[in-house]
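Lab notebook page, bench 4
Experiment: in silico fold of construct C2
Operator: M.H.
Input chain length: 224 residues
Purpose: comparison with the prior construct
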Amino acid sequence: MQQFTLRLFEDRIPPHHPPIYLPAAARAVYVVEGHLTIEFQTGSQHVAAGGAWLGDDEAAFLAGDAEAVLWRWELVPTAVTGASGALRSAPWSTSTCKLAQPIELDTASSWLMRCDRVQFPPGGVALTHVHQGPGIRCCLEGEITIETLGESHVHRPGDAWFELGYAPVLAPTTEVEPTTFIRCFILPRACRGRSSLRHVLPEDAGKTNTQKYHVFGERFVHLG
């Protein structure tokens, strides 16, 4: 087993900011507001609000003509987490660490990083379930309650939380409005293109999920 830290930052980049440079790391970037272009070793990609990018190269962020608000997940060896993780060469930007969580990964196994969007109708619920790996979620709209390990926590827009994966979770949402969260988690490569969710209770077997998913992308993680 090897110790890693999965962390989530909220970055705010003013319009027309000079290029911002990031070191190589396994990361996912979701654009909450605005847009930007991401340059990496083999090309570039324009990402608008509601879109995401995954990669592990050194990268450059090129701001657009409006403020960009980003949620940036990174998986880094715990030995290097002394670094702030703030955007480099970026005096006018701000970076806030919303959550940093130590995790253990078996180096004898192969892993991938997935970033996706999960949407619930009003009153939707994720029935008691587990996943095949750990991850950090962040609420985009609405309200969701996470019941796990004997505790219950309510999350609203901008709130981030960590799920172990193997610990059962029941997740009801508000009946007032739809709920959406963005998720980045680490899964066995065998889960590529497949759901990692498993219902726990026999009485829930065969029930239809109320939530809908959109996978932005997956990227193999090289633990090194």
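Observations: The CA atoms of residues 91 and 178 lie 37 Å apart. The chain has a mean pLDDT of 94.
Next step: discuss at group meeting.
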